[in-house]
Specification:
The complex is a heterodimer.
Chain A (H helix, E strand, L loop, with lengths): L22 E2 L2 E5 L4 E6 L4 E5 H9 L7 H8 L3 E2 L5 H18 L4 E5 L20 H4 L3 H11 L6 E7 L7 H15 L5 E7 L7 H9 L2 E6 L4 H7 L7 H16 L4 E4 L10 H10 L4 E2 L8 H5 L8 H20 L5 E2 H11 L19 E4 L4 E3 L2 H8 L6 E4 L5 H5 L2 H9 L21 H8 L10 H19 L1 H8 L5
Parallel strand pairs in A: 6-7, 6-13, 7-8, 8-9, 9-10, 11-12
Antiparallel strand pairs in A: 1-5, 2-3, 3-4, 13-14, 14-15
Helix pairs in contact in A: 5-6, 12-18, 18-19
Chain B lengths: L4 E2 L3 E3 L8 E6 L6 H4 L2 E5 L12 E4 L17 E3 L12 E5 L4 E6 L6 E4 L22 H9 L9 E5 L8 H13 L4 E5 L8 H10 L4 E6 L5 H8 L4 H14 L4 E6 L8 H11 L5 E5 L5 H5 L1 H4 L7 H13 L4 E4 L23 E2 L16 E2 L14
The structure holds iron/sulfur cluster (SF4) (2 copies).
Chain lengths: ~500, ~400
C-alpha cells in the first residue's frame, strides 16, 4: 500500500486515546436470542452484538482499532481520550427526544356524545338512549374545554371528536370547529380536527363541512363482513355495509389520506388476520394498526379481555406483520402502524406522539380527554375505567377546576412520576427501554398499581415479543429491513 | 477548461497604472468620459480608431495592433492572451501593470464564482486540492472587497473559499457583510473547515450580519475522531468541527456537510451517514463528493485513490440512509455511469464550468447532458468503469 507524502503524519499521530482505556457511556442491553444482545444507549441508538462482543465491551478488551470499537464510539457507547464531543451530542440528542414534553398537550379528545347507534359487546362507554340532554356535551362545556385547549403550550393542536357516536351531536362539532378557529386567530397554532365515527350517520352536508375545514375522519373497521358485524352489532345488522360505503364516500370527497380506520381485536379475530388486512387493502387503505384489545370497561365485564393471552395475540400480530411485509414485497407500500412507531423510535432521533410508547407516559401531556359532562380524564382508557366506577385517573372538571389545578394535579404529577421508565423496576435495566413506554391505566386495571410488575405484565410481555421480532427481522432479513426502514418518518 | 489567469497579454503603448487595477468589463465605448477611467472596455472594433480615456481597452488576441512602442499617444491598450479572449461585458478582472497579468475575479457566464480569500489553513487535509501556504495574502481580501461592488446584481451565487477563510477573523465577517450590502439578491456559499466556529462568538457574529441567503459548507470525513483528525492532519479537529456546526446551527446559520470520499474513509461511509442522521439531522444539506485530483490529492493519489465503482455499495447505502431521514443530499463529482442506478437521481452537475471536461467515451453517451463529467485535472485518472449509457 502506498504511503502519503513525507509532510503527512500517520493515523497514530492523531490518536490521543490509550488502548484498553475507554469509558462506557450510559447504556443497557437485553438478550435478543441465544447468541445476540441488543445494546442501546440513553438516546435510543442501538447495536446488535454477540455475547463475546458484549463481554469484550464490558471488560474493556475491545480491539482498539477494529470496526467494533469504532461502531461503539460512533454510536456513543464509549468515549476515549481522543474526543469528548460525544457528551455535547448526547445532551443534544436527549433534549431532542424529550422535547415534546415541554410542548404538552397536542391531542385533545372531545367526547361530544355518549349515545351510540351500535351495541358493540366490547364497548366500554356508549349508551343507547334518546335522551340528548343526559349524554351530549353542551356548548358551555365545550367553551370551557376550549379554554383548556388553548392554554396548552403545544404549537400543534389536534382536536378529536369522540363518542359514543359523535355525529349524533354534529351541531356541537360544528360549533367547536368554528370556535376553535376563531380563538386560534389570536394563538396561531397549527390546528387539526379529526372525527372518530362509525360513519353510519355520514351525510353529504357533513362531508362538505369536513372538506371545508380540512377535517379527517377515523372509523372502526374490524375486518370482513361477518367478523365486523359480529364484533359490532347494530340493529339491522348492516354495520359493515354502512362503514364500507361511508369509507368509500369519504375517500371520494376528502381524499384517501384524510380517511383512516382502526381495528379492534377480539377472540374471533385471532385466526383471521389475513382477511382483516385484505379488507383494509381492498378499501385502498395504506396502513393498518393491529391492536390488542384493551382490558377496560365492558370488555372486562364481558370477559373479552382475558379470553386470549399475550402469546395467542402475538401469533396473530406476527402473522399479520409477515403478511404486511409480503404485501410490500409484492410492490404495494402498506404499513403496520404499531411496528412503524417502534421502528421510528429505533431509527429517528425524535420521540413519538403515541401515548403508550412514551416515558413518562403521554397521559395528559400528550393526550387529554374532555368527557361529555366536562369531566377531564388523563386518557381515553382512564375515561373507560371511570365508567366502570374507578375514577382514579379523573383529573377534574372544566366547570370547577382551573387549568393549573388540572395539569398540576397530584393525579397528573404522580402518574408522570410513576411512568418514567428510567426509574421503574425492570424497565430501568431493560435494553428495550428507549423504544418502550408505560401504560399506567392498564397496569392499574390489571395489577392494581400504576407502576406495575413488569415480569407478569401483559403490556411488557407483548412489547418484548414485538421488539425481539422486529430486531430479528432487521438483522436477519435484508428485504424486511428495507421495508421496515421505509416506514421511518422523521 | 477555461483559464482564469494569464500573463500572456501584451501592452500596446503606455500603461498608466501604478498599482493593480480591478475593474468591470464593459462594451459601451460611448460611456461618458468621466466614468471611463474606472472601466475596462472590451473592444471588438477597429484598432485604427481606439476609444480614449478607459482604464483599460482589451482587444482580442487575433487583432492587428498598433505598433507597441510607437509614441502614438495611446495608453492602457492590452491585447489579450488567446485563453482570455472570452472576456465579456460584466466580467470583473484584476490587471497587474507589472507583468500585464490578468486575473479573472468574476465571470458573468459562470455557474459559480469563487473568491479564494487566503491560502492559509489550520488543517492540512491529505487530499486538499488547494494546498495551504503560510503566506501573507491579505491582498486577496482587499481584492474581493474591491470586486464585490462591481459584480452584476443578478448573480445567482458567489463563493468564499480558501484556505480557511475564518482565519481572517473580523475581516471574514466584513466579507460576508459586504456581500450582503453589494449583492442583496445573491446567495453566498462559504467553504470552511468549521473549526473556528467552536467559538460561539464567531458564529454569533456571522448570524448578526443577517445575510439573506448564506450557507457554510463544512467537511466531515468520518464518524469518529481518530479517522477525521488523521484525514485533516489536525488533532481535535473532529471535536472542533462538530462544536462549530452545533454553534452555527444554534445561531440558525445554514450549514452544509461536505464529505470527500477516498480510500481512507469510504468504508465508514454508511456509518458516517447514520452518524449524521442521528446527530446532525438539522443541517441543511449533505454533499458527498468525489476527489478532485489537484494539489495534495494529486501528490498523494496512489495512497488515497479508489475507483468510485469500488465504493458504489457504500455510497448507495449512505445516500439511502440520509434520504430516508429526509435530509437534502447531493452527490458531486461522480460520473453517472459508475453510480448505482437507484441513487443517480442525487447526482448533481457540480463541477465549475471552467474546470469541467469529458472523456472520449462520453461522446457516445446518452446521459452526457445530465452527467457531471470530470474535473479537467482528473482526466488522467478516472474510474475503470466509465461506460457510455
Ligand atoms: S415494559 Fe418491559 S419491554 Fe418495556 S421497558 Fe419495561 S421491561 Fe422493557
Ligand atoms: S460515459 Fe461519460 S458522460 Fe456518460 S455517464 Fe459516464 S462519465 Fe458521464
Amino acid at each position: 500500500m502506498s504511503r502519503l507524502g513525507k509532510k503527512f503524519r500517520l493515523p497514530q499521530a492523531f490518536d490521543q486515546a490509550v488502548p484498553g482505556q475507554y469509558w462506557m457511556l450510559p447504556c443497557r442491553f437485553v438478550n435478543l436470542d441465544d447468541n445476540r444482545y441488543v445494546l442501546t444507549n440513553e438516546v435510543g441508538e442501538h447495536l446488535v452484538v454477540t455475547r463475546p462482543q458484549l463481554e469484550q465491551f464490558v471488560r474493556k478488551t475491545v480491539s482498539f482499532h477494529g470496526d467494533f470499537y469504532h461502531d461503539l464510539k460512533s454510536k456513543h457507547f464509549l468515549i476515549d481520550d481522543d474526543s469528548n464531543v460525544a457528551v455535547d451530542l448526547l445532551a443534544l440528542k436527549y433534549r431532542t427526544k424529550a422535547q415534546q414534553i415541554s410542548q404538552f398537550t397536542a391531542l385533545h379528545l372531545f367526547v361530544v356524545s355518549l349515545r351510540c347507534d351500535y351495541t358493540c359487546q366490547y364497548c366500554q362507554v356508549s349508551r343507547q338512549t334518546d335522551d340528548k340532554l343526559a349524554y351530549d356535551m353542551s356548548q358551555e362545556t365545550a367553551d370551557r374545554a376550549l379554554e383548556f385547549v388553548f392554554r396548552s403550550p403545544s404549537p400543534a393542536i389536534k382536536i378529536e371528536f369522540q363518542g359514543g357516536e359523535p355525529l349524533l351531536n354534529f351541531p356541537l362539532i360544528q360549533y367547536v370547529v368554528d370556535q376553535a378557529k376563531r380563538i386560534n386567530e389570536n394563538h396561531d397554532k397549527n390546528i387539526q380536527f379529526v372525527i372518530t365515527t362509525n360513519l353510519s350517520l355520514l351525510t353529504d352536508d357533513i362531508l362538505s363541512f369536513c372538506l371545508a375545514h380540512d377535517i379527517c375522519l377515523s372509523t372502526s373497521l374490524d375486518g370482513p363482513q361477518d367478523l365486523h358485524n359480529l364484533n359490532r352489532p347494530r340493529p339491522g345488522r348492516n354495520g359493515y355495509q354502512l362503514t364500507v360505503e361511508g369509507i368509500r364516500k369519504a375517500q371520494a370527497v376528502l381524499g384517501r389520506d384524510k380517511v383512516g380506520a382502526l381495528m379492534t381485536t377480539t377472540e374471533a379475530s385471532l385466526p383471521r388476520v389475513r382477511e382483516i388486512i385484505d379488507t383494509y387493502l381492498s378499501l385502498g387503505m395504506d396502513a393498518i394498526f393491529l391492536r390488542a384489545l384493551s382490558p377496560y370497561g365492558f370488555a372486562v365485564k364481558t370477559g373479552q379481555a382475558y379470553k386470549y393471552d399475550v402469546d395467542r395475540w402475538f401469533e396473530f400480530y406476527k402473522e399479520g406483520l409477515n403478511y404486511v411485509l409480503e404485501i410490500n414485497r409484492q410492490g404495494y407500500p402498506f404499513v403496520e402502524l404499531y411496528a412503524s412507531m417502534i421502528i421510528n423510535k429505533i431509527f429517528s432521533p425524535f420521540g413519538t406522539g403515541y401515548v403508550d410508547l412514551q416515558s413518562p407516559s403521554g397521559m395528559a401531556i400528550s393526550a387529554i380527554v374532555y368527557n361529555y359532562d366536562g369531566d377531564i380524564y388523563a386518557s381515553d382508557e382512564a375515561r373507560m375505567l371511570a365508567e366502570m366506577g374507578d375514577k382514579k385517573f379523573r383529573l377534574g372538571s372544566v366547570h370547577h377546576d382551573s387549568y393549573e389545578d388540572v395539569i398540576l394535579s397530584d393525579t397528573v404529577l404522580d402518574t408522570l412520576e410513576a411512568t418514567l421508565s428510567e426509574s421503574l423496576p425492570m424497565c430501568n435495566d431493560c435494553g428495550f427501554l428507549p423504544y418502550c413506554g408505560t401504560e399506567p391505566v392498564y397496569h392499574h386495571a390489571t395489577q392494581g398499581d400504576a407502576v406495575g410488575h413488569k415480569a407478569t405484565s401483559g403490556f411488557c410481555s407483548k412489547n418484548m415479543k414485538i421488539f425481539r421480532y422486529l430486531f430479528t427481522l432487521l438483522e436477519d432479513d435484508p428485504e424486511a429491513r428495507k421495508i421496515l426502514l421505509s416506514w421511518v418518518r422523521p | 477548461m477555461i483559464y482564469l489567469h494569464s500573463k500572456n497579454n501584451t501592452a500596446h503603448g503606455e500603461i498608466s497604472h501604478q498599482r493593480p487595477f480591478i475593474s468591470k468589463v464593459i462594451t459601451n465605448s460611448n460611456l461618458p468620459f468621466p466614468l471611463r477611467a474606472s472601466y475596462a472596455l472590451r473592444w471588438h472594433g477597429s484598432t485604427e480608431a481606439l476609444p480614449q480615456g478607459f482604464g483599460l481597452v482589451l482587444i482580442s488576441s487575433g487583432k492587428a495592433c498598433p505598433d507597441r512602442d510607437a509614441g502614438n499617444g495611446l495608453t492602457n491598450i492590452v491585447r489579450l492572451a488567446p485563453e482570455l479572449d472570452y472576456l465579456k461585458e460584466h466580467d470583473v478582472i484584476k490587471f497587474q501593470p507589472a507583468d500585464c497579468g490578468i486575473n479573472v475575479l468574476y465571470r458573468h457566464e459562470a455557474n459559480s464564482n469563487a473568491f479564494l480569500v487566503t491560502e492559509r489553513c489550520n488543517s492540512f487535509c491529505i487530499m486538499c486540492s488547494q494546498p495551504p501556504r503560510d503566506i501573507n495574502d491579505h491582498y486577496l481580501v482587499d481584492d474581493m472587497l474591491e470586486a464585490l461592488p462591481l459584480i452584476h446584481s443578478e448573480t445567482h451565487e458567489i463563493c468564499i473559499t480558501g484556505g480557511e477563510p475564518t482565519l481572517w477573523g473580523d475581516d471574514f465577517i466584513q466579507m460576508i457583510r459586504a456581500s450582503e450590502t453589494h449583492l442583496p439578491r445573491t446567495s453566498l456559499h462559504i467553504l470552511s473547515n468549521g473549526r473556528n466556529f467552536k467559538n460561539l462568538d464567531l458564529a454569533i457574529k456571522v448570524a448578526a450580519v443577517k445575510h439573506h441567503d448564506l450557507m457554510i459548507g463544512i467537511p466531515l470525513y468520518a464518524d469518529y475522531s481518530q479517522l477525521h483528525d488523521y484525514i485533516v492532519q489536525a488533532d481535535n479537529a473532529f471535536d472542533d468541527t462538530l462544536r462549530g456546526i452545533l454553534n452555527l446551527k444554534r445561531c440558525r446559520v445554514p450549514v452544509e456537510i461536505r464529505v470527500v470520499i477516498h480510500r481512507e474513509n469510504y468504508h465508514r461511509l454508511p456509518q458516517l451517514a447514520e452518524f449524521i442522521t442521528r446527530n446532525l439531522l438539522f443541517v441543511d444539506h449533505v454533499a458527498l463528493m468525489g476527489l478532485e485530483i489537484r494539489g495534495f490529492a494529486k501528490s498523494n493519489l496512489d495512497a488515497i485513490w479508489i475507483d468510485p465503482y469500488d465504493y458504489r455499495n457504500e455510497l448507495a447505502e449512505a445516500i439511502d440512509t440520509l434520504a430516508r431521514s429526509r435530509m437534502r443530499v447531493s452527490l458531486y463529482n461522480h460520473p453517472l455511469c459508475v453510480i448505482p442506478e437507484p441513487v443517480r437521481r442525487f447526482a448533481v452537475k457540480s463541477i465549475s464550468d471552467w474546470k469541467n471536461d469529458f472523456l472520449n467515451e462520453c461522446q457516445n453517451c446518452n446521459s452526457k447532458q445530465e452527467c457531471g463529467g470530470f474535473f479537467s485535472s482528473n482526466l488522467t485518472k478516472t474510474s475503470d468503469h466509465i461506460k457510455a449509457l
